Amino acid sequence: MPTQFDTKSRQRTCCHDWQTHETTNNDGNLFFFSKVAQATWTNPANTSRVTSNNTPTTEASHYKSTQFANMDHLGSDAWLDANEIDEESELHTRATTFVAAIKWEKLKTLASGIRGMECELSDKYSLGHYNLVKRLTFVDGVSWIVRLRLPQLPSVFGAREAMKAADCMGIEIATMNYIRLNSDIPVPEVFGYDLSAENTVGAPYIFIEYLHGTVAAELQQAKECGTGTFGSPEQDRRFWTQMAEYHVQLASLTFDKIGSIHQNGDKFIIGPEIETGEGPWDTSQQYYEALVRHKMQVASTDAPPEVRESESFSFPSKFMELMESTQPVDAPNTRKFGLANRDFGAHNVLVDGEFNIVGFIDFDGVIAAPSAVVAQLPELMDLSCPVPGFVETREMALEYQKKVAHLLPRYIDLVQAAVARREINAGKKVASEFADLLASDAASIVQGLNEYGQHRDFINDRWSAAYDLLLQKYREEASTAEMS
Q1: Tens digit of pLDDT per residue, the chain (484 long)?
Q2: Fewest CB atoms within 10 A around its CB: which of 129, 213, 333, 377?
Q3: What does the DSSP 8-state code read for residue 419?
Q4: Angstrom distances, CA of residue 397 to CA of 24, 68, 160, 440, 450
Q5: How far apart are CA 255 and CA 265, in angstroms?
Q6: Omega of the bond prior to 233 within 30 degrees of 0, cis?
Q7: Are 423 and 430 in contact (CB under 8 A)?
Q8: What residue spans define the domains of the chain?
Q9: What would the DSSP string read from start to end of 224-244?
């Protein structure tokens, strides 16, 4: 069961419409399935992908429907090992082979050497896309997590990140260290690591503080909370408020360049980021050009033939003109790029049994970014931003939209309130630009580029039409301005 430090890029693989999901079968026909039938949605190996208007497409599920069998427990007590994976899948083979090959006694010796006392490893472990985690418990009762990098499996997960595994892990360590030092965001402490694949353990690993909690989205599902609701009314109010506060705190940490956080001794710098393998960039325009180029290159090799042959396949080529129409060119000496967690959402936050946030997980997706990227909405919280120009006609989807319509304005209000509180305390403007862009055209345009990575023709069709509609609007506005 996914828990601390084992999820990976879940916005690409999980859906946040829990009541009625649109998906496709092998024939490409649309159908809906209910919350009860969606027992495997949080599994990192489930290659269902988020699409526009919170609708996933499902390629295949490698997981069994026992996902929430142990949800009477929190934290590592709920882990299910490889037992939750279909024994015939590549993921099961990878997991069991990996576990058999790791030098677990050596790992215990290394941890004991760092802390100066003996420890024991749990038998249970938890699996994600790229990582396996186990709990270490020392004789004084203190617990750590060891997070080990799994072998790559491009046949299942594709090749969406350009950086090598060791570099990605180094960025995650640097990001956790930086956020711990510069904010109140609950981030686990890093105690030690070896990022070499040829080390004495048998895989790159990190020793990290254990935070006792369960992924919020999973606890919500296990407790059968209502759509967009996390616990009782008081628990729900507190959870949403905390999410908005931490979103603002992260956005308030600013840099003069775009890219991932790197660390050299005590010094933190902005360097290349993991998705493109490029950077850092001085301007939003430079970053967006690299991002569009990378996403189209990946799609040209990873997308199915029918997607590549579709007229809508090239819609990201319109991205730059759109962003230039919605966002002013970055002015020298005034550039401030806040931190954006591209994996921010209920799938990457740990909570206690009452939905109090105890920590966040998965940090390699954090980058200093343009405000429209920072303004992307949290995943798996039923926050729905419609595709511009797309008119929903299906009864079940319309029902769902009505049910969640209040959540977006509520979250925006919570973010604005969090910004106001921080500005009062700081005596200056803090993260206000990103807050103003929530649910804006600019944020929607970035959302469309992100969803292009799902490699689905009907998603591309919707966003291609949306981009054309927005382009027409901005060109008409520009023409009117010229004539006046």
Answers
A1: 344 544 443 333 333 333 333 433 333 333 332 222 222 223 333 333 333 334 333 333 444 444 444 455 566 666 666 566 677 778 888 888 999 999 999 999 999 999 999 999 998 888 877 889 999 999 999 999 999 999 887 666 666 667 888 999 999 999 999 999 999 999 999 999 999 999 999 999 999 999 999 999 999 999 999 999 999 999 999 999 999 999 999 999 999 999 999 999 999 999 999 999 999 999 999 999 999 999 999 999 999 999 999 999 999 999 999 999 987 766 555 678 999 999 999 999 999 999 999 999 989 899 999 999 999 999 999 997 889 999 989 999 999 999 999 999 999 999 999 999 988 887 777 777 888 899 899 999 999 999 999 999 999 999 999 999 999 999 998 888 888 7
A2: 333
A3: H
A4: 15, 26, 30, 22, 22
A5: 19
A6: no
A7: yes
A8: 10-483
A9: TPPTT--SSHHHHHHHHHHHH
Radius of gyration of the CA atoms of the chain, in A: 22
Question: In the numeric block, which tokens belong to residue 385?
Answer: 């931003």
Residue 203 CB coordination number (10 Å):
22
CB atoms within 10 A of CB 396: 15
Q: Which two tokens stand for residue 302?
A: 């990873």
Strands (E), 226-323: 254-255, 260-264, 267-271
